[in-house]
Design goal:
It contains one helix and seven strands. By secondary structure, the protein is α+β, with helices and mostly antiparallel strands. The chain has one domain. Strands 1, 3, 4 and 7 form a four-stranded antiparallel beta sheet that branches. It has a three-stranded antiparallel beta sheet with strand order 2-6-5, with no helix packed on it. The chain is elongated and about 45 Å long. It starts with a helix and ends in a 6-residue tail after the last strand.
């Protein structure tokens, strides 16, 4: 009886696994890749910036259902961070910048998702 119970549980587990696998998109038209830059600052450090690497033959991905770039800014500490409008064209250059650090320490990561599906394979 234990053998049948074990086999039944294995069958159910494999069935659930197969169902989950079908939930994934079958093509890579929505696949994205992510690039980021980051830095840390100590209290009183001047404003800083960094450049997000731009993958060759890729475009900045848009948040699904919008025309806004798919970006994330993760920061810690007392500083204000944003993508620099003057140094960012969203086609070849992306720059993130933060004001000076007002807490003991600050850190930030600027992340951008790219659509590279148009690359020649």
């Amino acid at each position: 009886m234990k053998r049948w119970s074990f086999l039944l549980l294995m069958f159910i587990g494999l069935w659930n696994f197969a169902e989950e696998a079908h939930a994934q998109p079958m093509d890579d038209s929505y696949a994205t890749t992510e690039q980021s830059c980051s830095f840390g600052m100590a209290k009183g450090d001047a404003s800083q910036s960094c450049h997000v690497p731009f993958p060759t033959s890729c475009l900045v991905a848009h948040i699904p259902g919008t025309d806004k770039p798919w970006t994330t800014i993760s920061k810690g500490g007392n500083t204000f961070c944003r993508f620099d409008e003057k140094a960012t064209d969203w086609k070849t250059h992306i720059t993130g910048s933060c004001t000076h650090c007002k807490s003991d320490h600050c850190s930030v990561q600027f992340s951008v998702r790219f659509d590279c599906s148009q690359q020649s394979h």
